Amino acid sequence: MSLLTLLATALVVSAAPVVEKRQAPSGVPDYVVKYAPVVYLFSGEAYFPADIGAQVTNTAPAINRTLVQNPPAVDLSNLDQLNNIPNSAHGANIYLTSNQDPTTSPRPQYLYGTKPDPTGKTPSAISCAIITVSHTNTTLDAFFFYFYAFNFGGVYFTLEVGDHIGDWEHNMVRFENGTPSQIWYSQHSGGQAFDYAATEKHDSVRPVTYSANGTHANYATPGTHDHTIPGVNLPAGPIEDHTDAGFLWDPTLSAYFYSFDPASSSFTPYGDAPAPGWLNFNGKWGDDKIPESDSRQDCTFGIDALCQYQAGPTGPKDKDLNRTNVCPDGKDCPVYPVLLPRSDVA
Ligand SMILES: *[C@@H]1O[C@H](CO)[C@@H](O)[C@H](O)[C@H]1NC(C)=O
Ligand SMILES: *[C@@H]1O[C@H](CO)[C@@H](O)[C@H](O)[C@H]1NC(C)=O
Ligand SMILES: *[C@@H]1O[C@H](CO)[C@@H](O)[C@H](O)[C@H]1NC(C)=O
Ligand SMILES: *[C@@H]1O[C@H](CO)[C@@H](O)[C@H](O)[C@H]1NC(C)=O
């Protein structure tokens, strides 16, 4: 995309409606909400942000695709009780498994999430967790975790690959002395980092993030983004993510707020957020992979990573909350001073 096109798009986007006044519970630094990202969902999106608690009420714990017998009654506040289930590897082997067949057409309603209203709010759905991590007196990281109940992977030739139930994505804004300095955009198993100053702004201060159709990978620019499936050498052709300024979602309008203390590895709620049992749950937020022997599964060329249905993901605590750089630890972390489409910087 040319610079002119980018600029033109930025101008159109900045004319978006003004969102309702945001409020953060007491104790959350004002700047965390002031500089919170605004998300643009794709105009053709079918799988909207979803209520985090509904993922618990619509599922039951299973291990190795077998339901756990007489599991404890759990909600968000005590979901970590599932970590105590015997032979679950402290919960790590547990998959929150849909009570209804998730592969039907249409799929069970809860998997489609909640479309934001004209103010950018997802009515009756709390689909975001904002987690602050203070590193020093002067550096604070604010994580914005976005939850979607279903990830539509993409189309490879004519076949769908990489669908899964439960989808956690995030931005992280690093603040120095209350001033935003850098921002991370999660994209599949990686992502991109930019100087805050480089990002497109909504209402002149809030960075814009474009959520890709179906996969919900976060990009700093609209358009088409190539991505390959991690760890797979594709026999041919890219799989593309598509982003545009389809629906404005302001994740701060319905979010739970927490702080995370790396030294004690503990979460503390701000305001009336539920107790953090769900953040301490070690398991997965969606069904396990459907076996290849199951007629509902379809694996392109018989390649494992190219199956239509993949396993659900772990939650926010697996996303390097105590990271050194703005990128997750263990990744090269170029922080770009200008916006470039991913294909130009990868
Ligand atoms: C967007 O995702 C839907 C599935 O939710 C898919 O049917 C549609 O083709 C996708 N659109 C584009 C432009 O990729
Ligand atoms: C999972 O179930 C399959 C089929 O019943 C079995 O072969 C396999 O050993 C089980 N795996 C574990 C880790 O229990
Ligand atoms: C640390 O924070 C306190 C309270 O906000 C402030 O008074 C102090 O100057 C800060 N110290 C440094 C080194 O920034
Ligand atoms: C958090 O990260 C810092 C900086 O990398 C490191 O010094 C510290 O040991 C980490 N804390 C924990 C509890 O891992």
UniProtKB/TrEMBL annotation:
<keyword id="KW-0732">Signal</keyword>
<protein>
    <recommendedName>
        <fullName>Vacuolar protein sorting-associated protein 62</fullName>
    </recommendedName>
</protein>
<feature type="signal peptide">
    <location>
        <begin position="1"/>
        <end position="15"/>
    </location>
</feature>
<dbReference type="InterPro" id="IPR009291">
    <property type="entry name" value="Vps62"/>
</dbReference>
<dbReference type="Pfam" id="PF06101">
    <property type="entry name" value="Vps62"/>
</dbReference>
